[in-house]
């Protein structure tokens, strides 16, 4: 009886480790940004289904927001410009 309990516990641990190793995240779609020549990506951060990409461009820095599911741009922020407040 003791051997069966140990074998069952080991089997349960093996199954849990295998499932945890698979990862539940779906693969990201291919994403492209149409950036002018001389631009470079400085940083990327992700939160709540979006990516924020900090881009240095010849005409000034920008933060571009991308949808993580579709890879499409959702908007951008140009630091240093005024933003309307409601």
Description of the structure:
The chain is an alpha+beta fold. The protein has one domain (2-77). Helix content is 24%, strand content 34%. It is built from 1 helix and 4 strands; from the N terminus they run αββββ. It has a 4-stranded antiparallel beta sheet with strand order 1-2-3-4, with no helix packed on it. A hairpin with a 5-residue loop joins strand 3 (60-67) and strand 4 (73-77). The longest helix has 21 residues, at 2-22. The model has no long low-confidence stretch (mean pLDDT 79).
Provide a brief overview of the structure.
The protein has one helix at 2-22; strands at residues 40-47, 50-57, 60-67, 73-77.
Number of helices: 1
Largest sheet: 4 strands, antiparallel
Counting structural domains, the number is 1
Straight-line N-to-C gap: 69 Å
Give me the secondary-structure topology.
Elements: H1 2-22, E1 40-47, E2 50-57, E3 60-67, E4 73-77
